[in-house]
């Protein structure tokens, strides 16, 4: 019997940090966040806010030394300082070791390969000549990827033909960054599966989510995914294996591809709650954020059971507008039954910036998708310096 | 199409205020709270905290003048100042008018009577002689009640026999406070129904909750209540009528009695989210707190549909202990599936102080109640100045 009233440190006070904090505060935890932005989405919800850069080692040390456990909302963090703090006895979840393997796509895939987990063929490349050889091996199109630092499609380049190689090479750091080539997998659906592992090794796997991206940014998540029972089971088993292989503690998201034959491949692993898991707040017994907080504070995990079919749509800042954010159409959107609105509280809207999302629960995914489409069309988030009508 | 990004002012930063704020922040609202306690449960979740007494008219005015809408988490507020602010054009929900009628139990019941809504017989009393006459009219036992300021059984006195009258009279203010006598209604169950009305008059009614009190403090809420379909319909219709009669805007809770014959009487109306409605956070499509925030910000209401049978248990500070609060047994409690823990974040635990609650969802109320009993027994909240084992 341990006193639950621990202090949680979170690196990153964006929307994922904010939603973690909402659940942490529900259970009465003390929360300290590290984020360079004074008015980050989490700023009004925390007990303490360390305003410092994410690579400020002193600030990260301060966070770890003044809390009982440290977690993070994104994976581009200096894993070495986290590892050092771990060696000094601080609790960091997910561990620095799993973060280190995951934050480099090459080492991440190497580990998947080592344990025979299906993933597209890949190889490290160091020159344009290497890329050319990869193209000969994999055929066109194929992918060129930065090993580190990518998100929302940034750091990825689709090489359609040999002539693209020099541009791809230049775009991805011109030899200054680690890059890899990857065979193109002809998928018919992108899916993701959330899984959480507690400190005792118990693993809970969420239902399979179907994801639709627009311009490489997640636009829509539908749950349950429109795939067969067998494919669903395959994907959930795969997510569980990933949690074992990476020795994850906390919430992980495993992004996967499904092809026509029902084969499932791991595309990428994220060691944190994920945009494609926001649906869990309204539609599952335990949300991904509560699950994560439970895992890192040594509490038992909750049920990931889906209560209702659900669709999530991201709300991005409108094109041709920037500045102080303004949210229009909430009245129209919320008049549709089953619609829930999340506005992250980012001060400024910018084109394609993730400003919020809607979750829609209904009796079927089709119904939820239809309502979500209407609600999304009603909602506009723009920056007041320029009208979205421009 | 109105910009949703309004400022909400809340009088009271206790657990009800905190849970309102959690939902308000989800939707991106700016929240200012007025509470005299620097470390009230809401204090880390707000944009601004006015530290002032609840009867500080200047502070209430400041709150109203710097927000778009004002609400409150308890009803013992100076309704005159709210009325004045309303006359000046400020939005106060629920309105000062409905607050004024409700906060005095006598005027509250008079209004119910006027609209033929069933409530126990009552009369105003001004002397011990009046009380004696009430006893002759109603028979023993009967109730003596303060017209204002009571909660959790405070302000109520059960007069079992004529000899109790002088003590009851003394206890309830010795003639200095308004009091009333009420016929004792031999109920077999206490129930409550939450209802919410938006600014356009749309009313949403929640399922009927069965409440069990211990020492006049709510201990357990079970939903759906173990009553017939007809009684359920009667109770829900009654709650709807109450919302119409009181012209409520926002969430109201109607506490009722049910007798052996299935008659339903209104006991008391609270113009705010209610302890017996905490179950809605996990078990309903829309929580009572989100519903309240939607109503007062002129947004359409959500569905009150129950997703799963549910039981709520309050967590009170342990006897024989006080001081800095300490929560034990969360690991054991959360190991039971379907259990959710809310800790309000009150700095100090005191005997019988409401420190948190658990919600348990399951496939039946019986199952949920059994799990809730186990979870509640595992959890202990005590003040560290004295051990709960004393």
Question: Layout of SSEs?
Answer:
2 copies of one chain form a homodimer.
Chain A: E1 7-11, H1 15-26, E2 30-34, E3 48-50, H2 57-65, E4 69-72, H3 79-87, H4 96-103, H5 105-114, E5 122-125, H6 128-138, E6 142-146, E7 156-159, H7 165-171, E8 179-183, E9 189-197, E10 203-205, E11 209-214, E12 217-223, H8 229-245, E13 250-258, E14 264-270, H9 280-283, H10 288-296, E15 310-316, E16 323-328, H11 330-334, E17 339-343, E18 348-349, E19 354-361, H12 365-378, E20 380-383
Parallel strand pairs in A: 1-2, 1-4, 2-3
Antiparallel strand pairs in A: 5-8, 6-7, 6-8, 9-10, 9-11, 9-13, 11-12, 12-15, 13-14, 15-19, 16-18, 16-20, 17-19
Structure description:
2 copies of one chain form a homodimer. In chain A, α1 packs across α10 (288-296) and α3 packs antiparallel against α4 (96-103). The first copy, chain A, has 12 helices and 20 strands. In chain A, β1, α1 (15-26) and β2 form a beta-alpha-beta unit. In chain A, 29% of the residues lie in helices and 28% in strands. In chain A, strands 9, 10, 11, 12, 13, 14, 15, 17 and 19 form a 9-stranded antiparallel β-sheet that branches. Chain A has helices at residues 15-26, 57-65, 79-87, 96-103, 105-114, 128-138, 165-171, 229-245, 280-283, 288-296, 330-334, 365-378, and strands at residues 7-11, 30-34, 48-50, 69-72, 122-125, 142-146, 156-159, 179-183, 189-197, 203-205, 209-214, 217-223, 250-258, 264-270, 310-316, 323-328, 339-343, 348-349, 354-361, 380-383. The model of chain A has no long low-confidence stretch (mean pLDDT 95). Chain A has 390 residues and is an alpha+beta fold. At the A-B interface, α1, β16, α11 and β17 of A face α1, β16, α11 and β17 of B.
